[in-house]
Each structure stands twice: as C-alpha cells, then as structure tokens.
Amino acid sequence: MTSKSFIRSGRDLSRAGMMRQAAAALLLALVSSGAAADVWFEVGANDKFTAYADPATIKKQGDMATMWAMFDYKTAQTTSPGKKHLSLKLKYEYDCKEGRARALTATAFAESNAKGEQVAESNMSLAPSAIAPGSIDESLFKYACTK
C-alpha cells in the first residue's frame, strides 16, 4: 500500500512537472517570438487622450534620450489621408539638459492600444521644441530622462 501510494504520487508529480515545463517552454517561445504584450505605463490623461510611455524603449546617450510613447484617444481622430485612428505611437527624442523634445516618427492605428490596422505612418524632421511646464509632454519628458 505504501509503495502503491508512492508510485501514484510519483506519477502525479511527474505530470505536474511536465505541465510546468510545457508552460515554461510556451512562455519562452512567446517571449522569443515577440508575441508577448508590450508594457506601457500611463503618464497622463486629459479629456481627449491618455498618454503612455514604454520604459523598455528608453535609450540614453549623454544628455539625449529616446523613447516610444502612445496616445489612446477617447474619440476617433482623422489622419491627413482621411483615415480614422484611435491610437498613435510616437518615437520621441529628448534633450534632457535643455528641456526640449521632438517627434522622430509616428504611426496611427485604427484601434486603441496601437492595435488593428496601421492607417498612417510618418517619419518626421521637426526641430526640437521646448517642453511646456505641467503638460503631458513634460510627464513623458521626465519619464524618459529620469529612468
């Protein structure tokens, strides 16, 4: 009876162990393939949109930093080709010493959270501009420059 109980217990642990290994392998495959979800942190909101920062994309070199941000709009916005979008991802470059920023690229998506059809994309060549105190831009700036 004791040996039977031990064998049954051994089989159960073996199955549980195999399930854990299978789950770990699946998780590793998802992470390796890029299918894992992005982690965005809310940095501000107003009556038109909520702004998020992606800490995994922060890159610093000297006084400069780059970071991806996302804006989720409460109502659909219209791009210049006339297509509707609910979210916008932008790559920003920040001058952490001078308090200036500029957008480098922008991509508009049909759905919230940068999901759905990509309806527009633009590489920008804007000059850096000063960050307005108390703005969502300032919250993004601080997030990128202090992390």
Structure overview:
The longest helix has 32 residues, at 2-33. The protein contains two helices and eight strands, in the order αββββββββα. Strands 1, 2, 3, 4, 5, 6, 7 and 8 form an eight-stranded antiparallel β-sheet that branches. The protein is α+β, with helices and mostly antiparallel strands and 147 residues long. It is 29% helix and 43% strand. Residues 1-37 have low confidence and may be disordered. It folds into two domains: 1-36; 41-146, Lipocalin, CATH 2.40.128.710. The termini are far apart.
Architecture blueprint of SSEs:
Layout: H1 2-33, E1 41-45, E2 49-53, E3 59-61, E4 64-78, E5 84-95, E6 100-111, E7 115-123, E8 129-130, H2 136-146
Antiparallel strand pairs: 1-2, 2-4, 3-4, 4-5, 5-6, 6-7, 6-8
Terminal Cα span: 60 Å
In total, how many beta strands?
8
β content, as a range? 35-45%
Low-confidence stretches: 1-37
| Number of separate domains | 2
| Average predicted confidence as pLDDT | 81
Provide the structure class.
alpha+beta
Question: The biggest beta sheet, please?
Answer: 8 strands, antiparallel
Number of helices: 2
Corresponding CATH architecture of the largest domain:
Beta Barrel
The CATH homologous superfamily name of the largest domain equals: Surface-adhesin protein E
Question: What is the CATH C level class of the largest domain, in words?
Answer: Mainly Beta
Order of helices and strands: HEEEEEEEEH
Shape: globular
